[in-house]
Structure formats: C-alpha cells, structure tokens
What we know:
Number of strands: 0
Oligomer: single chain
Distance between the termini: 26 Å
Order of helices and strands: HHHHHHHHHHHHH
Shape: globular
Structural class: mainly alpha
Strand content: under 5%
Number of helices: 13
Largest sheet: none
Helix content: 55-70%
Amino acid sequence: MFDHAGFYGVSFFFVLSGFVLTWSARPDDTAPRVWRRRLAKIYPNHLVTFVLAAVVMLVAADPFTAKGTLANLFLVQAWFPDITVPNTMNAVSWSLSVELFFYLSFPFLLRVLNRVPVARLWPLAATLGAFTVIAPLVGRYAVTGTPLPFISDGSLSFEQIWFVYFFPPVRALEFLLGMVAARLVLAGAWPRIGLAPAALIAVGGYAVNSLVPYLYGIAGTAALWLTPLVAAAAVSDDTGSPSPLRGRVLVRLGELSFAFYMVHGLVVTYGHRRLVAGSDLPAAAGAGLLLLALLVSLGLAHALFTWVETPAVRRLGAPRPSAPATAPAAAAPTATLEAKE
Length: 341
C-alpha cells in the first residue's frame, strides 16, 4: 500500500519546487542571487548529513567508493547511470543532485516561460504531461542494460530505471509542470479546484500509480495528479481561504521538512539494520520502532534546521530583492509555500 509513497513524495517536491520558485520570483532578481539562495538552503544540510553518513558507514564497516563518494559530495551523483553511484553515502541526497540542476536552470527557464502567452500555457502543460507518459516508454524500449532480478518483475536494468527516476533532464518535466502551473495561477487562468477535491485527485492518483507498470509508478506521471494539489494550496493561501496547511503545527513541520528528509533515510536504514533486521517482531513492536524512528528523525531535523539550515540561509543567502509596487498581488503571500520548499 505504501511502497510507492517515497516515489510519490519526491515527485511532489519536484513539482512544488518549480511552483514555489516561479510563484515567488521577482522581476529584478538575478541568476547569481537565485543560485546563492538555493545553495545556502541545500548545501550546508547536505554537507552535515554527508559527514554523518560517513561516520555511520565507518562504524558499520560499510564500503566506500571514490567515485560514489566524490559524486555525492559535489551533488552530481544523479548523472551517473551506474548502480554504485546515485544512492551512495546519504542515499536521499541524489534528489539534491537533481534539484541542483533545476536551480541552475531556473533563471533561464523562467525567462523563456515568461515570454509564453497565457493562452499557450495550457498547451505547454499538456505537452509536458505527455512527455511524462512518454519517458517511461523511452526508458523501457530505447535504453538497454543488464536486467536486475530483484527489481519489479526482473526485466528492468538499472540504466532503464536511472533514465526514468534519476536522470535530471527527465525529472525536470515535473519541475517545469510546477513552473507552468504557477504562471497559470498568477495569470488567473487556473481552474477553481478546491483544496479538498485536489487532495482527492492526489490520493486517487497515488492509487493509480500503485497499479501501473513499475517505470510509470516511480517517477514523472505522479506530477499529473500532484500539480492540482500544489496549485490549489497556493490559491487557498493567496485568497486566505480556510486551510489546515496554515495551522501552526503544519507550518512548523513544513519548515522542518527538508531537514527531516535529509536525516530520515539514515535513521531508517541503520535503525532497521541495528534493531529489526533478522528479527521476527510482533506488529506492536514494529509500530513502536516506527514511531521511535519518526521521533528520532524529527529531533535530528529540528537540530539540523535550528543549528545549520537557518543560520546558513541567514548568513549565506543573498537578500531577496523587494517586490515592486506593480508586482502581481498573488506573488506576495508565499510564506506557507516557501516554508514547505
């Protein structure tokens, strides 16, 4: 039931990233400022969890490879169609390698997107959506490699999976969908879909993605179901409509979400190896350990956010240019969305 949750969550954050950056962009912002702010947001957390992963791996006597370690350190691991590289060290940081590609591309993509007439945004969104459907077909039939017997039905190679799941230009389809959706909302061209119906679409999409062939279930097609939820949340935030997303607890969890993402994999992986692997635990004990992993991850996320992420963003992030008086009204109330991203 939940075996696709991680895949779905990654797609959500790729869409959200494109949406938030476009939603909060300022006309007088510059590419170096954008890059500096984004690096200040992601790299200090990455560096700290990279060191933490190295320590844990040394204690556990796990092997290191120079190629994988260096690729991870410099956030280029997602570019390697080599099973030993993308998930090295702190495995979840492969997605930062993809995000880094998004951030470097964003100022140029936004410049092009802003030249697209509003009337052509929906055809553009449809084209991007079609490519998310085509990409798994390309991966399945145009990419080769040695099949991995332990993945899906044993007929897929790592190279095929890499093309669909890790390869940054393919994952950029989700980021671009988020960007286009943000422009549609800012232009008042997004349909009136409430937060509750959008959430139902997302839940239904998860059910669909759990049943489709493996390559469709792990990557970009999730964006088709998740983009309405991101857009509806932004509209709700902008109009001040009642929304549980603005509650104090959820806003705080949104602030911690990136730090939580960066630590949870290490907690789950090494906690499972230490406490669960090889044990026949009753359901109650398993649930208790799951809760413990959640609490430990939240505690570490709070520490990482408080002592690393927040000071780094404050000291290293370039100041955002102030919004001009003629800026669209919808561009202002972005605090809730930015907390999540």
